[in-house]
């Protein structure tokens, strides 16, 4: 009997799901114990390795999330908000740790996640890469050092299939900038300019989203003043950075007390 952490992965046919299956099954320190997809998905019942076009991994894709989550120590979840809420409730019921990469959740959905985190450890981040989580700290510090003569804009670009905007990462960076300035993002966020918008309001934090092609994920935080501009940039070229971060978070989360944690906690950045 192995005592390696047993990891279940949700949405295994997805862009992130497939990357996670590969990283977890290649990692000798952990065991891939569950491969979950939505009911009616054509992969359900097939070996997950074969469904991905590779060698068998001796694990069938299941739509029985309750059973797979109950049998795991930790579930890694990059799917969609409503699915993630249901997985969080299952993880809480079974005391399974939960790593959430899903973005696009509204305030009510985030409150439901916080409720599940009263019963199990949840690591949630709009971006699981080391680089972006370093950038978050940097953005907070630069925003704290500058006054409102510097207009803050967050610009992000992603592939044509992304369904939410601004990206989870853009919102993390916006939150960090607002924290640095000592304001609430909800009071200063300017999202979706169109038409006669009027001049920019001093102190606002603006968001712009570009969608196209196969862009993995690009984020700029711009501090623009009269006569100078600071740009902090992160470019992702490989989804492996998110996936490896999520596996690190999963190993870290096993055995942690109930609560909601960030990647900064996992990476020891705070
Ligand atoms: N936090 C981070 O570092 C990152 C977060 N993401 C986020 O992860 C999420 C997924 O992204 P992608 O993999 O690109 O999307 P995708 O559309 O390729 O994959 C989503 C998968 O979830 C599955 N799914 C949906 N509902 C389900 C359910 N009820 N049960 C089981 N499976 C279900 C779909 O069938 C699909 O396979 C998005 O919210 C994205 O923004 C993506 C990359 C990095
Ligand atoms: O949907 C994606 O692809 C990504 N989503 C995350 C986000 O919303 O920030 C992280 C990364 O940028 C890729």
TrEMBL record:
Annotated localization: Cytoplasm
Key word Repeat present: no
Annotated pathway: Amino-acid biosynthesis; L-lysine biosynthesis via DAP pathway; (S)-tetrahydrodipicolinate from L-aspartate: step 4/4
Assigned keywords, A-Z: Amino-acid biosynthesis, Cytoplasm, Diaminopimelate biosynthesis, Lysine biosynthesis, NAD, NADP, Oxidoreductase
Signal peptide: none
Residues in Dihydrodipicolinate reductase N-terminal domain copies: 6-128
Recorded GO MF terms: 4-hydroxy-tetrahydrodipicolinate reductase; NAD binding; NADP binding; oxidoreductase activity, acting on CH or CH2 groups, NAD or NADP as acceptor
Keyword Hydrolase: no
GO biological process: diaminopimelate biosynthetic process; lysine biosynthetic process via diaminopimelate
Listed SUPFAM superfamilies: Glyceraldehyde-3-phosphate dehydrogenase-like, C-terminal domain (SSF55347), NAD(P)-binding Rossmann-fold domains (SSF51735)
EC class of the enzyme, as a word: oxidoreductase
GO cellular component entries: cytoplasm
Catalytic activity line of the entry: (S)-2,3,4,5-tetrahydrodipicolinate + NADP(+) + H2O = (2S,4S)-4-hydroxy-2,3,4,5-tetrahydrodipicolinate + NADPH + H(+); (S)-2,3,4,5-tetrahydrodipicolinate + NAD(+) + H2O = (2S,4S)-4-hydroxy-2,3,4,5-tetrahydrodipicolinate + NADH + H(+)
Main location: cytoplasm
Binding residues annotated for NAD(+), in chain numbering: 11-16, 37, 101-103, 125-128
Binding residue positions for NADP(+): 38
Domain Dihydrodipicolinate reductase C-terminal: 131-267
Active site: 158, 162
EC number, as in UniProt: 1.17.1.8
Binding residues annotated for (S)-2,3,4,5-tetrahydrodipicolinate, in chain numbering: 159, 168-169
PANTHER family for the chain: 4-HYDROXY-TETRAHYDRODIPICOLINATE REDUCTASE 1, CHLOROPLASTIC-RELATED, DIHYDRODIPICOLINATE REDUCTASE
Subunit structure: Homotetramer.
Biological role: Catalyzes the conversion of 4-hydroxy-tetrahydrodipicolinate (HTPA) to tetrahydrodipicolinate.
Family: Belongs to the DapB family.
Protein name per UniProt: 4-hydroxy-tetrahydrodipicolinate reductase
UniProt source species: Qingshengfaniella alkalisoli
């Amino acid at each position: 009997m192995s005592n390696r952490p047993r990891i279940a992965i949700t949405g295994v046919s997805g862009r992130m799901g497939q990357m996670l299956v590969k990283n977890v099954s290649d990692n000798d320190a952990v065991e891939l114990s569950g491969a979950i997809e939505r009911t009616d998905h054509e992969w359900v019942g097939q070996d997950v390795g074969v469904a991905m076009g590779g060698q068998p991994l001796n694990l069938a894709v299941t739509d029985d999330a309750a059973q797979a989550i109950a049998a795991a120590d930790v579930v890694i979840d990059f799917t969609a908000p409503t699915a993630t809420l249901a997985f969080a409730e299952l993880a809480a019921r079974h005391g399974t740790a939960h790593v959430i990469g899903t973005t696009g959740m509204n305030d009510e959905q985030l409150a439901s996640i916080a409720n599940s985190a009263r019963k199990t450890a949840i690591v949630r981040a709009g971006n699981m890469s080391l680089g972006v989580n370093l950038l978050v700290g940097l953005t907070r510090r630069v925003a704290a050092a500058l006054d409102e003569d510097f207009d803050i804009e967050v610009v992000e670009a992603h592939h044509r299939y992304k369904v939410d905007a601004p990206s989870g990462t853009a919102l993390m960076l916006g939150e960090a900038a607002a924290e640095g300035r000592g304001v609430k993002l909800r009071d200063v966020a300017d999202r979706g300019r169109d038409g006669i918008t009027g001049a920019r309001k001093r102190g606002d934090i603006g968001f712009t989203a570009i969608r196209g092609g196969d862009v993995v994920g690009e984020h700029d935080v711009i501090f623009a003043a009269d006569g100078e501009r600071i740009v902090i940039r992160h470019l992702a070229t490989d989804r492996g950075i998110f996936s490896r971060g999520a596996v690190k978070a999963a190993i870290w989360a096993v055995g942690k007390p109930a609560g909601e944690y960030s990647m900064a906690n996992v990476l020891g950045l705070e």
